């Protein structure tokens, strides 16, 4: 993997603008090359940082009908539940842009966490088989064009937490957790082999709460003995960090 690109900005507002420009360029590039743009969304603060995409000039410069939307992790709750990442993404982003509903891939409701993870993995494999999604020739996992990844204050990404075994999964594409240390406890999540097969990953980290984990991940004394989940983000494509001043205050 090439070394990550680290972009630091004075404010979260500047991160939001830079992120919109970055996504706009990638959207045009992947649609020109493949006719579609597969995007994986995290939940959390990331969704608000995408707000510029829903405003002019960005909103009018994107071929939204070619976007395919997936979820990096999801809470196993109904899709209209306040804890749902789909609901967060729908209310804050997806309802404001003209992506066809059939191009959005939420989890199936009314399944157990184990069943929901297996069903989502099967759906991804089906989309690879019918050439809707690409495959990484190196790993054999699906190769998404862009993953937009947030980070929790203790360094978790997706629903892969520091002291939980899911972070070591090697074979499954999607796994589940029933004792998430951050509520709600039942979730499904992409695994690291799937995450790291992506073409482009944007790590979008803002706010003072993230400063300690950013220091561990990017500071001079990065902890490689038992790395934080965020340190395992290492795509075969490119990794770009988008950071505001508060998130870098400990560097
Ligand atoms: O629980 C989750 O947390 C992470 C980080 O959220 P943030 O609010 O600290 O940005 C998020 O990326 C993930 O999708 C979500 O399920």
TrEMBL record:
Keywords: Hydrolase. It comes from the Eukaryota. Its EC number is 3.1.1.31. GO terms for biological process: carbohydrate metabolic process; pentose-phosphate shunt. One of its GO terms (molecular function) is 6-phosphogluconolactonase activity. Residues 11-241 form the Glucosamine/galactosamine-6-phosphate isomerase domain. Pathway: Carbohydrate degradation; pentose phosphate pathway; D-ribulose 5-phosphate from D-glucose 6-phosphate (oxidative stage): step 2/3. Gene3D superfamilies: 3.40.50.1360. Belongs to the glucosamine/galactosamine-6-phosphate isomerase family. 6-phosphogluconolactonase subfamily. This is Probable 6-phosphogluconolactonase. It comes from Ambrosia artemisiifolia.
């Amino acid at each position: 993997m090439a070394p990550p690109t680290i972009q630091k900005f004075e404010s979260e507002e500047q991160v939001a603008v830079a992120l919109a420009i970055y996504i706009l360029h990638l959207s045009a590039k992947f649609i020109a090359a493949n006719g579609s743009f597969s995007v994986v969304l995290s939940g959390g603060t990331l969704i608000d940082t995408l707000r510029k995409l829903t405003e002019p000039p960005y909103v009018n410069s994107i071929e939204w009908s070619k976007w395919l939307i997936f979820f990096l992790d999801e809470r196993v709750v109904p899709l209209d539940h306040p804890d749902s990442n789909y609901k967060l993404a729908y209310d804050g982003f997806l309802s404001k842009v003209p992506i066809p509903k059939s191009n959005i891939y939420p989890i199936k409701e009314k399944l157990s966490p184990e069943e929901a993870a297996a069903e989502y993995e099967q759906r991804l494999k089906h989309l690879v088989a019918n050439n809707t999604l690409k495959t990484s020739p190196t790993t054999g996992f699906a190769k998404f064009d862009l993953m937009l990844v947030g980070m929790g204050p203790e360094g978790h990404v997706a629903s892969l937490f520091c002291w939980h075994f899911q972070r070591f999964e090697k074979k499954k594409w999607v796994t589940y957790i029933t004792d998430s240390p951050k509520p709600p406890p039942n979730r499904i999540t992409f695994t690291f082999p799937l995450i790291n097969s992506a073409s482009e990953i944007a790590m979008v980290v803002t706010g003072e709460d993230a400063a300690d984990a950013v220091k561990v991940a990017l500071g001079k004394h990065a902890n490689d003995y038992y790395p934080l989940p965020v340190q395992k983000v290492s795509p075969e494509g490119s990794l770009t960090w988008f950071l505001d001043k508060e998130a870098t205050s400990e560097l």
